[in-house]
Amino acid sequence: MSPSIPPDSPYPVTDSVRRALATSLRRCSELIPENEWLRKLARSEATGVPLRIKLGLDPTAPDIHLGHTVVLNKLRELQDLGHTVIFLIGDFTSMIGDPSGRNTTRPPLTRAQIEANASTYYDQAKLVLDPTRTEIRYNSEWSDPLGARGMIELAARYTVARMMERDDFSRRFKAGTPISVHEFLYPLMQGYDSVALKADLELGGTDQKFNLLVGRALQAEYGQEPQCIMTMPLLEGLDGVEKMSKSLGNYIGINEPPREIYGKVMSMSDTLMWRYWELCTDATLPEIAAMRLRVEAGELHPKQAKSDLARRIVADYHGDQAAAEAAAEFDKVFARKETPEEVREVRLPAAPHPVWIPKLLVTLGMAKSNGEARRLIEQGGVSLDGERLSDAAREITAAAASSFLIKVGKRHFVRVWFD
Known about the structure:
- By secondary structure, the chain is of the alpha/beta class.
- Helices cover 47% and strands 14% of the residues.
- Strands 1-6-5-2-3-4 form a 6-stranded mixed beta sheet, sandwiched between helices.
- A hairpin with a 2-residue loop joins strand 9 (382-384) and strand 10.
């Protein structure tokens, strides 16, 4: 059905407005309400006033990962349409902790942790956004001055009944799991950010839908035109099950070394690869569908499709040259079973007695415990100077000037020297 403007709008829907709507809808999960967004787009084109588009990220960890870029890439698309992008760093809301998707209270961060994480956030976001057209804000600007009186006045504008409509709150309440009062403050403060910024549109993952809707409600309470909301799909992590998260260890950080990014992409399942093609690249859906058909027909090996994906992702954040070098390094180490050019070196004091290899792996940080090290060896996951080990009782000399190349798994190499 062709999109149309509500009858009370004086602004025409031109072809360029329709194209802007199509760009907005591409790969998003929901756009609410679509007609209101269309009206805002038409008004912006007719008046020449750009729309204010908000994305808030809490600096709960120091690095931005590919999961964040699903929303950041959409933000860049809207930025390229000529609208004002507001990259909001939630230094205040981080102290509360977002309860979205939680079945327990999230431990709040300290101010020092937040400041350390926030210092790196925008530097990494600039790998996606155009810094010359991005407004950087911190929500402590208006949240700190609000004070106790302002917080009470804000809380009076939203009811407990509506707060309990939130799935994770209602589940926890029914299960008898404690809900701290301060957790109710999180959606209120995120919504108040939209009031302070006079946002026309707020983006977030599908797990943020409730918080984004609170922003619409509060803007209406404060006499503003309510923002539209756009939710984007959540990217599964490398395990293919949970959403990408640094705390779960299933992430790919965009600031990681190119060879690490490349290797992590190559380690994912062939099935998961298509999800990353769709959400982490600018390839069109017809292009991805055609590639998938070629793989299914045996015309394209899935490893090649995954290699193309890895090169594309590395190039997006580190450049074409780094992508080519990462691909060559991966091929050298894994396809031709050679040693990488850069190997971590560790020097240890020489000893008159041999060293038990499981204990050495723990010392080198290649295993968490002697038991884990033994299991790695017994499963064939450890090599010494190119020889795959199977005997967990194996020892090596620690004589002065001796050295060994140890490999654990597929990608972890350490050259140990005894001095």
